[in-house]
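Example record

The entry below shows one chain as it appears in the dataset: sequence first, then structure tokens.
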Amino acid sequence: MENKNNSLLLISIKPQYAKKIFKGEKTIELRKSAPLRAGINSYMLIYVTSPVKELWGICKIASIIKDKPEALWEKFGEKTGIAKDEFDVYYEETNNAFGLELKEVKSLLNHTIKLEKLKKIIPGFNPPQTYRYIDNDLINHNELKELFI
């Protein structure tokens, strides 16, 4: 499934997991549902939740994996950046597990964008509980646009 629209996926990630993504220790982002308007090679903005409340970077989706939780763990557990007991708790009430395989992770390095600034440069921005879509034509920020180059 290729990205055929003009929107960006914005995903909220806890600080401890975001750090692992940018260190290359976590290449599979776990979700209970798959993003419907994103696919292979879609860009994904990485927003880090409280107490950080900043946009840390961007990556591309290499693939979207759907499986039973146990099967996903067996195939990709070491790439998820979490312990098995955390994984089991996260998926304890569902039979479907989704993994977003990440590639081409780019960090904003020392230019992370704080929540207050995000609200100014992306009209109507509010941090999502899990994920949301942003029309990339609405993004008016050079540092952010440079991430796509």
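Notes for this example: The helical segments are 15-23, 69-76, 84-90, 115-121, 142-146. The CA atoms of residues 67 and 75 lie 10 Å apart.
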